Amino acid sequence: MARMTAARTPDRRLSVAPMMDWTDRHCRAFHRVLTTGALLYTEMAVDKAVIHGDREKLIGFDPAEHPVAIQLGGSDPADLAKASRIAEGFGYIEINLNVGCPSDRVQSGRFGACLMQEPALVADCVKAMQDAVSLPVTVKCRIGVDEQDPELALFDFVETVAAAGVTSFTVHARKAWLKGLSPKENRTVPPLDYDLVRRLKAQRPELEIILNGGLETLEQGLAETVALDGMMLGRAAYHTPWILAEADSRLFGKADPVASRVEAVDAYRPYLESQLGKGTRLHDMTRHMLGLFTGQPGARLWRRILSENAPRRGAGLEVIDEALAAVVPHDEAA
Q1: How far is the first Cα of the chain from the last one, in angstroms, to the nearest whole number?
Q2: Could you tell me if 221 and 272 lie in one domain?
Q3: pLDDT (tens digit per residue) in 225-248
Q4: What is the pLDDT of residue 5?
Q5: How far apart are CA 51 and CA 87, in angstroms?
Q6: For the domain that residue 227 is a member of, what is the CATH number?
Q7: What does the alpha-carbon distance between residue 331 and residue 265 come to, in Å, rounded to a whole number?
Q8: Does residue 317 sit in helix, strand or coil?
């Protein structure tokens, strides 16, 4: 358990989005090899699960993952306050409330994107969370849901929630359609509206506004957020993680931690070895590395070797060595 005191306010110029079934502790450990500056988020953790479940399994993390924030899901102020206190005890440096997930499971629990329709309730939730902890409480939301007019819904939502004390909003610049689109379709079908997010920032310059949704590269993110406070990368950071490897020099004014993809694998190796010693399956860790060589000769062979061999019982670091041997001869510029 990473019980430690947060040393500083999170730097949100670049963050990696909370993604269910993806941004687990092994993924975060891998991303941390690539960037020391980006803010990493957990998968969404449901408040009641944090209160009543196996906390170490659900929200435990290694201090080496810092800076790392937790995203909570829920709509009961008292439960969110309890879960926030628990998260603070684990050493997270920020608590984020999910007001953007469109899945049926989330809707049935009355949280996620459907809360865009209940800004007063969200305000009550974040107020209770802030009263319970000394950490920053932030919100990740959409620009609206279903038939809402984003020009009205987003601004009204932010006004109400900001009045409760939230000063940082990460905005996924798409509507969420709770009826008629699957969660996967909700990530691609509704059109992006970056200009609306920029207008929000222009109207509320005192707030920190982070842009999320459809950003594929650091270059695109930097271009789209000139008038904003930061970018949150999601699927692009997961499927093509090497884009994180220049973040420290380009955004945070410090040297990048690794100079090549091979160095990244070597830097992740001690974590792999340690976790294997604890009984973690190799596949649970290497599945987050499949996109490391995307765009490079040998990338398909790298993915195939890891995908076929890492899930086997007893698989160890020899699988990594085999996959590396297949791509290293081609890894010229890395």
Answers
A1: 35
A2: no
A3: 999 999 999 999 999 999 999 999
A4: 41
A5: 10
A6: 3.20.20.70
A7: 13
A8: helix
pLDDT at 155: 98
Q: Encode pLDDT of 265-286 as tens digits.
A: 999 999 999 999 999 999 999 9
> 216 and 283 share a domain?
no
Q: Of how many residues is the chain composed?
A: 334
Output the pTM of the full model: 0.93
Enclosing domain of residue 323: 261-330
**Residues designated catalytic:** 101
pLDDT of residue 328: 80
Q: Report CA-CA distances (Å) from 299 to 51, 153, 246, 319.
A: 42, 43, 20, 15
32, 125: one domain = yes
State the pLDDT at residue 17.
98
Q: What is the DSSP string of 169-199?
A: EEEESS-B-TTT--HHHHTTSSPP-HHHHHH
* Residue 109 · residue 116 · CB < 8 Å: no
Q: How far apart are CA 263 and CA 17, in angstroms?
A: 24
Residue 68 lies in a domain: yes
Whether residues 268 and 241 share a domain: the answer is: no
Residue 98 half-sphere exposure, CB side, CA atoms within 13 Å? 27
Task: Say how many domains are in the chain.
Answer: 2
306 and 208, same structural domain? Answer: no
Residues 117 and 52 occupy one common structural domain: yes
Q: Which residues contact 7 (CB under 8 A, 6 or more apart)?
A: 93
44 and 113 belong to one structural domain:
yes
Q: List beta partners, residue 208.
A: 168
Q: Which residues of the chain have pLDDT under 50?
A: 1-7, 331-334
Closest to 224 in 3D by CA, of 209, 237, 235:
209
- pLDDT value, residue 172: 97
